[in-house]
Specification:
The protein is an alpha+beta fold and 100 residues long. The chain has a domain at 33-96: Gyrase A, domain 2 (2-Layer Sandwich), CATH 3.30.1360. 38% of the residues lie in helices and 24% in strands. A four-stranded antiparallel beta sheet has the order 1-2-4-3. The two termini are 17 Å apart. It comes from Kribbella aluminosa. This is Arsenate reductase.
Length: 100
């Protein structure tokens, strides 16, 4: 698994980073209904309603180690992820993990 897109600004211990990436992969595999890369800094995901609780948990933990992400969970199904311009490559890396 290529995790070279994870920036040094991430404070999650290096050994735990692949596990966190796997959690996002699992969320996408189990619950992703639609993805829209709105612009270079914004990704909007439509998730299954059952994803609300695991998504809220995951983004709370991710916000704790990667403060450059802004996650907005609306209702049960819409997750908006934004990053500042300096972290566009991180959003690219996350977008590349979406199922095709």
């Amino acid at each position: 698994m290529d995790d070279t897109w994870i920036p040094e600004a991430c404070t999650l211990p290096t050994a735990e980073q692949p596990l966190r990436v796997a959690e996002f992969d699992q969320l996408f595999a189990d619950h992703l209904r639609h993805a829209d890369r709105v612009d270079a800094h914004t990704l909007v995901l439509t998730l299954a309603p059952a994803a609300r609780t695991p998504t809220a948990d995951l983004i709370a933990r991710e916000s704790g180690c990667c403060s450059f992400f802004t996650f907005t969970l609306t209702g049960a199904t819409t997750l908006r992820i934004t990053v500042p311009p300096a972290y566009t490559a991180v959003l690219d890396g996350l977008t590349d993990r979406l199922p095709r």
